[in-house]
Each structure stands twice: as structure tokens, then as C-alpha cells.
Amino acid sequence: MEKNQNSLKKNSIFSLMSLFFQSGYSAVLGLVANLILTIVLAPEIFGIYILTLSIISFLNYFSDIGLAASLVQKKDITSDDIRTTFTVQQILIVTLITIGFILTPYVRSFYDLPYEAIYLYWALLIAFFLSSLKTIPSIQLERHIQFQKIVFVQIVENTVFYISVSLLALNNMGLVSFVYAVLIRALTGTILIYSISFWMPKIGISRKSLKKLLSFGIPYQTNTLLALFKDDMIMLFLGKTLGLEALGYIGWAKRWAEAPIRIIMDNVSRILFPIFSRIQSEKERVAQLLEKIIRYQTMILAPTFVGMALLMNRFVELVPKYSKWEPALPIFYLILISAFLSSYSSPFINLFNALGKVKISFKFMVYWTAMSWILIPFLTSLYGIIGFPISLIILSLTFIVILFVAKKNITFAFIQQIYPGIVASTFMGLIVYIALYQPNSWIQFGFSIITGAVAYVLILYVVFKINIMKEVHSFFKYD
Length: 479
Description:
Elements: H1 2-40, H2 43-61, H3 67-73, H4 79-102, H5 104-111, H6 115-132, H7 135-143, H8 147-170, H9 176-196, H10 207-230, H11 232-242, H12 244-257, H13 259-278, H14 283-318, H15 329-342, H16 346-354, H17 358-383, H18 387-396, H19 399-407, H20 415-435, H21 442-464, H22 468-475
Organism: Candidatus Roizmanbacteria bacterium GW2011_GWA2_37_7
Keywords: Cell membrane, Membrane, Transmembrane, Transmembrane helix
Protein name: Polysaccharide biosynthesis protein
């Protein structure tokens, strides 16, 4: 038993570190690519890309009906489970892609898209199919908590995509840059993951396996459907209501403001689900892990968001041709707030799912979805483009209710875990604000970042007696 726990711990930590490395690498690469694209491309072109991705996300929901998550959550799986999942998924995907191609003229007419946008739409449909072929090999790796191998594939995919799209955009290929980059990425990732975790596709459906998989999969996927309507369908609504240029501003603000969440919490959530599933009967270990996640995410996210809020306007001024994104800054600031507050919901939603309490997650998703479609259209009609981020802040406050519900299932401390990071970040923000009273330049920009980082570490150490190096070491000892 102890050997299995140590093995789980070792694989979990190695996988999490691999995910963070991949995110860090991709973040730097993505930052460079995003800078190039948002300098070269107009906001409306960026809006088209955001819109098209949302359409594909809508199709992606119906491609799985929760079977993949069932394979990860299920304690033991059989060859019938794997074969059934693959077969059902492919039937759904081929059907969806066919419908997607048939609807092409309607999509173009509805959003008044240029013809190049249709090529991107088709490329994403093809990539959608290729991505589905990666499901079973990825699940095999996830079940063994070998995310480092999945990470390697993602690193190669991101490298190929970002380099391709950047070089093509610099060669004045505009929206077509995304078309080639998307296809190259999809082909590369599919070939690579089969070389690492080979699985010979097999066709067949077992009614017994399908019934068991759907018993978890359908409630789980229902949450995904609600998330789809809450996020991607809202993007489609905003694209039609506010226009593609406004959607470009929203997409730019969301990408920058939510970057820390994508890098940190998405990876933590991804690894938490299988870990919580394995230790779900050990309430004390679950509580310890929860507290450490809350503590560390606050210590990382709080100073990051404070720094971004203070420095983004200077960044927009310094980057050539970036002044066109100034209208998006108010949206960016508000989404920063909502992103930080909503980050506290993620660990607990994963906890509920791993403990088999999918109904709790489902109720929250119903609330978020319903309120999104009430608040966003209403506030958008009142305040225009700024109504969207205001709605996000209101919705993010739900984390307070989630905490109370979680405490009924697991006993854990919350305020004690977030207090040091938030207080230290506040004082760090004051120091950075003072440091910014100089002529704007890259030297001053870099100096402000270094000053803030040093101040934050010193405040934690002097005021709260928190040694960052010891905290990092402590992370590896959650059991």
C-alpha cells in the first residue's frame, strides 16, 4: 500500500512539474507569437480567430459524451471499454464534421465572414478529427499519471504551431497563417503521440461497457455542455452582437488576463482529478492536498495579477503598434479580478468530480450558465463591451458558496492559507506603484518587475516567516 502511495506521489509530482514546464515554455513561446500576431494583425482578424475556435469548441462537446473522462475516473478498464469509447467517439465526430461542412455557407453568412475565414473553419474541422485520434493514447498515459509524455507532445505541437503562424503572419499571409499552422500542428501531434503511446484502433461497441461508462460520462459531460454554453456560446453571441472588432478586444483581454490561470490552475486541475480519484477515501490526505493547492496558488497568482494590473498599460505603450489595444485595457483589468476570484473554484470542482459527487458540480454549472445568459446580454445592452467583464466578476463570487459546500465534505482551512499571499501582494503592489513614477522605458519596466519580486519575497519572509525555498520543498511532501 505504502509502495503504491509513493509511486502515485512520485508520478503525480513528476507529471505536475512536467505540465508546469510545458506551460512555462509554451507561455514564453506563446507570448512571442501573440505579440507578433497582435502587432501584425488587426483586432477584427484576431476576433475571427476567436470566433472560429468557439465554433469548433461547440462541435467538440458532442464528440465524446463523457466517455473519455469515464475511462480516467474508472478504477479498472477493459479492452471493451476502450474499443467502445473509440467507436462511439468516431461515429459522433464524423457526423459532426459532416454537419460542420454542410453548415459552412450559413456560418459565413451569419457572421459576414471573409472567404479566408472559411479556410480556417475547414482547417479546424480537419484538426478536430485528427485530435480525436489522440484520445485513447492520451488516456492510457493519464491513467498511469504519465503526463510528462503528454507534455512532450504538447511542447512539440505548440512549438510547431507558434513558429509556423508567426513566420507566416510576418510574410503577410494574414488569416491564412492560422490555416496552415493549425493543420501542421494537428498532424504533428497525432503522429507523435502514437509513436509514444501506440494503440491499434479497434471498432466495436459493448452495450455493457457503454452503459457503465455513460453512468458517469453523461453527468460529467452535461457539466461540459453547460461550460460550453457559458463560455464559447457566449463568444458566438458577443461576436454577433458587438461585432468582430469588439470580440477581438475581448479575446485579447481574456488571453492576457487569464494567462496565469491557464498556465497554473489548468495544469493543477488536470492533475488533481486523477490524484483525487486515487485517494478519495483518505479524507485527511485530500484535505492536506487541498490546503497546499490553495496556499500555493495564492502565493503565485496574487502577486502575478497585481503586477499585471500595474504594468499592462506601460506594456501597451512600449510595444510598437500596440496602442491599437488600448480600448481593451478596461476589459483586461476587470477580467483580472474575475480570474483571480474564480481560480478558487477550480480545485473544489475537481474534488467533487473525483469523489463521484458530479451532481454538486452540475448544480454550480447550471447556475453559472443560467446567470451568464442572464447577466451578459443584459449588462452588454446597458454598458456595451464592458458589460461582459462586469458579469464575469459577479459570477466569480460564487467561489464563496463553493467553499461552504466543500467544507461539508472535507474539513480544511482557507483564510489561513490565502492570508500571507494576499497581504504580501498588496504591499508589493504599493512598492511597484511607487517604482513606476519614472519615465516609461523598458529599463524602468524591467526594474519595476525585479523590485516587485524582491519586495514580495522579503515581505513573506520578514512578516510571515515564509521561506520560499522551504515552501517549494514542502510542496513535494503532501502526504
